[in-house]
Amino acid sequence: MLDKCVVSRSLAILIGFLALALTSFAVATYFLAPGVAENPALQAFLARQLSTSIAIAVVVSAVAYLLWTAQFRRLQGRQQKILNLQHDVMAKQMEALSSQAATCILDPSGRVEAASDGFVDMLGTSAGALLGQPLVEAVPCLQDSRLHRMLSEAREHGRFVSGEVSGYPTDRPGRMVVHVTVIPQFDREGAFSQILLVLADKTQEKMSETDRFLGLMLEELQEEIYVYEAGTLAIRYMNQSARQRLGWSPAEARARKISDTVPNFDMRALEKHIGPLVEQRQNAVTIEVSNAGDSVEIVTRKMTGTDGVDLFVSSLRDLSHRHEIEAAKLQTVSMVSHELRSPLASIKGSLSLLKSGSLGEIPAPVEKVLDIADRNSDRLLVIVNDILDFEKIRSGTVDFSTADTGLHDLLHEAVDVNQPYADRHGVTLRVAPVPADARVEVSQDRIMQVLTNLLSNAIKFSDPGDTVLVCAEGEGGNWRISVTDTGPGMPEQAIADIGKPFHQQVPVDGRKREGTGLGLTIVKQILGHHGTKLAVESTVGTGSTFSFALPAAMPSADGAAYDGLDGTGDTPPPTAIYS
Amino acid sequence: MQLERILHVDDDEDIRTIVQIALETIGQFELRQCSDGQSAVAEAQDFGPQLLLLDVMMPEMSGQEVRVAIGDLPGMDKVETVFVTAKAEDDFARELRAQGALAVITKPFDPMTLADQLRTIWQKAQ
User: What distances in angstroms separate CA A134 from CA A17, A107, A126, A150, A193, one per listed residue?
Assistant: First the structure.
């Protein structure tokens, strides 16, 4: 631009000089040339030439001057515009950096030159941690490949780029969504000099979108969902499934109470259902309700609404189909169990007859092999029985009706049943003195199963020569039954894992014992049906005590008499006889 | 009255062999065995059992059906029944007892003590 100005100015001066030289030549010729004065015709010609030259010189000079001035003014205007633009950008940068807006300036290599307070606050960092550092490395939540691409595009093509990036800020939970505008800056020579980055936090906006999506999902759920106020039972929300069943519009649903959802609504049943939530004993409560042959499961949770009102959220699930599946599954398990038990009966029966010697004397090496076969058929039977028991209890087909039962006989019978197993392991079973009139209100068969599982575990983990002790002690209105062994014991973590289905402890002594890992799960299930829990005390290297409390039947546990020490019974174990 | 004659019905030949040893050789009972309900009904009057030892799940006729069919025969109304089953559910055992069975023995049973068990059950019922 400036070069053009110099050329046009030089051209104007050259033309001016030419005009002046032409005029001087005309003047000189007019006044100095010999004979001009004597020749009027020549004089008149020269005078005309002179005046023409002067006129041309004046016009050319004037045009040159005008040209030069116009060019100069235009260039001056452009320069002013550039200056104004630069001033504006600087002003905006200054404003951006000093305000709460989240902005920062990067140098051409992507390092932070300056950052506004808003920028620092939004990203949960500090100015000290940012300045001089590559932005993408200094701010973890901006480590998004989309930002890399935007910066490259702005740098290479010199244009504004904007888009969304997301990441996880270090100072708060959850994902952050940020809208980024990248503005490249250039110097007077047109070279890339800086990047201005403007950020806007879109996390809340995105959250709202997520909420809307979740709301839609809730609306489309097959399960019926009811949200109602804890105090007034006024319905706040019912999803589509719930509204369809009752034939209500959303507005109609909001005008009603949860008690309007069923004819003859049982308010007492509701109060009983939500009692543990109101008393904050449980986070969620589940109830199964049967109505006209249909079975539904209702799960209710207590929540607080955005307006601070306590709400109940109930979900209803149709269980009919699930019950059908469970019944079919139980039938299958039962069939498989039957199919396994029948051949097992033949195997065990044959082995038992052989071992008894009633079919002829058995040589010692053969007896040893028979023992192995017999032991493993027992093992298989335990597995079959455990799986069957677990499935039966889980599906609720086991009868848990209780009866007044003598504790003394119960404990001794349990010991008798397990005596052969104890004998095989060389372990002694002992029952501590039990008051003769101690009675408990239990499901006898099931508690016998609990004792059998605890005793067989205690025997399994004992060494030959050890003693397993069964005790009954009064504890308030209950009797606490305990089974104590002097086995390897368990570390704390192992105690926490007790009762997980199919979980087998890895003993501290490293010796693996046979079992399905269902024994203690079954124990816990049965005790749960009796309203009690399995307690475990164990010390590594000393042994373990498994105990549970049972409700005393009349007379109470207090002041009961003891019948003295009992030895272990050596009665042959009865097979399962339901007579 | 002592228990002497037992009619055993089971479709499983192996089980029949084991029960034969358990009740004849060890228990010293007079035993007759059948592999299905029809032949048991046909032989019942001729043998005159005091006790029926019946497997429950059999093809053609179930143990319960055999018990009813034999009970309906002339002079057979006093015959007692003990069922043997691999189905170990409490409810099922209770149902069988409710139908008039003296006892229900689950498989696998101990052949060495089977005779004693049956004698005990019989004596209790007398």
Answer: 62, 9, 14, 15, 16
Residue A411 C-beta-side C-alpha neighbours within 13 Å: 29
Q: Would you call B18 and A346 a contact, using CB atoms and an 8 Å cutoff?
A: yes
CA distance A207 to B23: 78
With beta carbons less than 8 A apart as the criterion, state whether A573 and A429 touch. no
- Is A334 within 8 Å of chain B by CB? yes
Query: Angle CA(A559)–CA(A563)–CA(A568) in degrees, nearest 5?
Result: 135
Q: Is A573 within 8 Å of B117 (Cβ atoms)?
A: no
Chain B contact for A446 (CB, 8 A cutoff): no
- Parse chain A into domains and list their residue ranges: 2-90, 99-206, 223-317, 322-394, 403-551
Please answer whether residues A196 and A208 qualify as being in contact, where contact means their C-beta atoms are separated by less than 8 angstroms.
no
Condensed to tens digits (0 to 9), the pLDDT of residues A298-312 reads: 889 998 887 788 899
**What is d(CA A568, CA A429) in angstroms, rounded to the nearest whole number?**
6
Query: Strand B30-34 relative to strand A478-485: parallel, antiparallel, unpaired?
Result: unpaired
C-alpha span between B42 and B36 (Å, rounded): 10
Residue A544 has pLDDT above 90, yes or no: yes
Q: Which of A349, A398, A445 sits opposite B108 (nearest CB)?
A: A349
Residue A63 has pLDDT above 70, yes or no: yes
The tens digit of pLDDT for each residue in A497-524 reads 787 766 666 666 766 676 667 788 889 8
A27 Cβ neighbours under 8 A, 6+ residues apart: A50
> Is pLDDT larger for residue A575 or for residue A544?
A544
Kindly determine whether residue B91 and residue A399, on different chains, have CB atoms separated by under 8 Å: yes
Looking at the complex, does the CB of residue A401 fall below 8 Å from at least one CB of chain B? no
pLDDT in tens, A188-235: 777 788 888 888 888 877 777 777 788 888 888 888 999 999 989 999
Q: Which helix (H) or strand (E) holds A63?
A: helix A40-98
| Residue whose pair of structure tokens reads 């320069």 in the numeric block | A79
Q: Where are the beta strands (DSSP E) in A190-341?
A: 192-201, 224-229, 235-238, 284-291, 294-304, 310-318
- Which ipTM was obtained for this model? 0.75
Residues A429 and A420: beta-carbon distance below 8 Å: no
CATH topology of domain A223-317: Beta-Lactamase (3.30.450)
Domains of chain B: 5-121 (3.40.50.2300)
Rounded distance, CA A430 to CA A314, Å? 52
Distance CA A274, CA A285 (A): 7
Q: Do A345 and B117 touch (CB under 8 A)?
A: no
Contact (CB<8Å) A358/B26 = yes
- A575 with B113: CB under 8 angstroms? yes
CATH class of A403-551: alpha beta
Q: State the Cα–Cα distance between residues A230 and A270, nearest whole angstrom.
A: 11
Residues of B in contact with A344 (CB under 8 A): 107-108
DSSP A119-131: HHHHTT--HHHHB
Dist. CA A448–CA A389, nearest whole Å = 13
Cβ contact A353–B15 (<8 Å): no
CATH class of this structure's domain A99-206: alpha beta
Q: Is the pLDDT of residue A33 over 70?
A: no
In this prediction, residue A9 carries a pLDDT of 65
Q: Do domains A99-206 and A223-317 have the same CATH topology?
A: yes
Please name the residue that has the structure tokens 């009665």.
A571
Say whether pLDDT at A578 is over 60: no
pLDDT digits (tens, 9 = 90+) for A327-383: 777 677 767 777 788 888 889 889 988 988 888 888 888 888 888 888 888 878 888
